[in-house]
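We modelled the chain as a single entity of 272 amino acids. Its sequence is:
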Amino acid sequence: MTAALFPGLHAELLALLRALAPADWERPTLAGSWRVRDVVAHLLDGDLRKLSAQRDGHRLAPPGAALASDAGLLQWLNELNADWVRAAGRLSPAVLIDLLAVTGPAVAQMVASLDPFGPAPFPVAWAGESTSLHWMDIGREYTERWHHQQQVRDAVGAPLLNARRWLHPVLAISLRALPHRYREVVAPEGACLAFEIAGGAGGIWSLTRESGRWALGEGPATSVQASVVVAEDDAWRIFFKALSPAEAALRVRIGGDTELAKPFLDVRAVMA
């Protein structure tokens, strides 16, 4: 469960932002065309939307047919994000920090109050879920806040949040995208892949074909047709689009059936 990590993660964010020099706010990041200030503005937007929708029951105007497909949903989300980032250009770094100092604790308080096994208001689409429980939705929100803070840290040369306390939950939640990524991969019943994320925050997982579906498991498997070994710092960059499949192929060690392992190279724990 990741709800207990929100206050500490937010404290790390505020300490980081308060130490930035003016020039740091204009540095490019791993988030496409977004600068540091744009990523920070997006984090504020995430807090405000979460509080408005889930705590207060506020709903945006229906997007019509946009939610009928993953592509439509992604386009709609990208437009929402871009609209906010453009508007947030009017805000100074100091104002962004002041607002985050209010919204961060409010989000932490809200997620801590939720029944982890109650129904979440929104499904985690990148994991292929049509409905989700709160613990998974909270985990998605945690990975969102962690990886955007990581983008800022990477951009300004600050220490990355790769300690096991922070990174292991990100990896464990993100790997839940694997069954969805493999949904169209055909393999015999019982086929199994092993995934090792090397490093202090890593671990070993497996993906097994069971009853015509792929099932994610934690721990070593006894017999596998393919194996993937990747360093923890490369793993999160794959999951959050900081490495292309071609770049990932140079950093991942694959054993056994190469074709069966290849889909891992572009697994995403975000809408993409």
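As a brief sanity check on the tokenised model: The longest strand covers residues 203-210. The mean pLDDT is 94.
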